[in-house]
Amino acid sequence: MPPSLPTLRIGPLAFDFPVVQAALSGYSDSPMRVIARRLGAPYTICEVMLDKFIVSLKHRQRTSHFMHIAEEEHPTGGQLMGANPEDFGPAATRMVAAGFDVIDINFGCPVRKVLGRCRGGFHLSQPAVALEIIERVRAAVPDEIPVTVKMRRGMDDSPESYDQFFEIFDGAYERGVAAITVHGRTVLQRYDGPSRWDFLRSLKAHAGDRVVLGSGDLFTAQACLDMLAQTGVDGVTVARGAIGNPWVFAQARALAQGKPLPDPPSLFEQRDVIAEHYRLAEELYGADRSLPTMRKFAIKYSQLHPRHQDVRQDFVTVKKPGAWREVLQRWYATDDPGVHPLVDEPEPVGKKVLCHD
Question: Does residue 1 sit within a domain?
């Protein structure tokens, strides 16, 4: 690797590239994680799961996908969210038993329903509870299992929120957390407006040798490298930018090696990955139950097709198991060039707008 991109280390784990796949609620199940790993992501995190749900989960075929980890995924992280500190330890223990290599605690989810139930980003408003959760998880899992935390830069931009953020941030490392991922938006900002990369730059300077990963507005391979260069964070986590575009990881690797941005995947390349993603989903969920999940992914995959609106509509209308193959036969029959997905997100504050040839 180039000297500017050192190995990302999370506890005893070392990753050969500092661009990883974030936890994505409703998306980052085992099939998505497998595809991302095959296309260059060195590490992926499972979609967030509630602590109470994990503890009460029965060994049934219908729910087995929640804790499913393919052998080729390792190392992979499992993300926990909940309200009561006492529920986190048992849930973390069960996740380790299921095979997760890292336990990630979610203090960042901004969804109103989640906040109303005192979960996710709500904990940024109560440092004592957040730190108790970290203590309980760290005590519950073996020493060799890293515990990490996902945060936003605060509940809002008030001085009180700023102080609470750093109480949790610094206290988390003191309690044995191996790395913290910070999204450059506040909880109340949700996904509106730009991500504050200047905050991440100041935060990494404050953190020193402590491992910090950045998140927010990473929709292209170039953006991933820009965040690394401009903020100094140790790694970045790609969230929405990886849905339907797992090639972003290979593209980032190419740019990091000084190569030009690779062409978008051709239609045959897209076809093969989409078909394999469907196959993995059918194997995990069954042909019928995989349809709703894969419809979300297919809509995103269609953005890389030059006739994406037509392809999207065809994927949306798939109602019968296996009918997705007809869409592939119709729209991916010739190996025409693909397109890069459109990015219409706001530029993050503090990010230099670079010229691209």
Answer: no
Nearest CA to 306 out of 283, 271, 336 is that of 336
Residues with Cβ within 8 Å of 128's Cβ and at least 6 positions away in sequence, in order, are none
Q: Is residue 135 helix, strand or coil? A: helix
> Burial letters for 137-164: b for 16+ Cβ neighbours within 10 Å, e otherwise?
bbebbeeebbbbbbbbbbbeeeeebeeb
Residues 12 and 136 in one domain: yes
Instruction: Please say if the pLDDT value at position 163 is more than 80.
Output: yes
Which are the catalytic amino acids?
109
Q: What single letter denotes the amino acid at residue 279?
A: R
Tell me the per-residue pLDDT of 336-348, one tens digit each, with 9 for 90 and over.
999 999 875 544 4
Query: If DSSP codes are grouped into helix, strand and coil, which group holds residue 189?
Result: coil
Q: What angle do CA 234, 165, 48 make, to 5 degrees?
A: 70
Q: Does residue 350 lie within any of the structural domains?
A: no
The two beta strands, 13-15 and 8-10, are: antiparallel
Residues 294 and 219 in one domain: no
- Give kind and range of the element (H or E) at residue 104: strand 102-107
What are the structure tokens assigned to 244, written together? 């339907």
26, 57 Cβ separation under 8 angstroms: no
Separation CA 248–CA 214 (nearest Å): 16
Identify whether residues 143 and 77 lie together within a single domain: yes
> Do 272 and 213 sit in the same domain of this protein?
no
In the DSSP assignment, the letter for residue 326 is H
Number of folded domains in the chain? 2
Q: What is the Cα–Cα distance from 22 to 207, expressed in whole angstroms?
A: 21
Domain that holds residue 69: 8-256
Tens digit of each residue's pLDDT (9 = 90 or more) over 288-319: 999 999 999 999 999 999 999 999 999 999 99
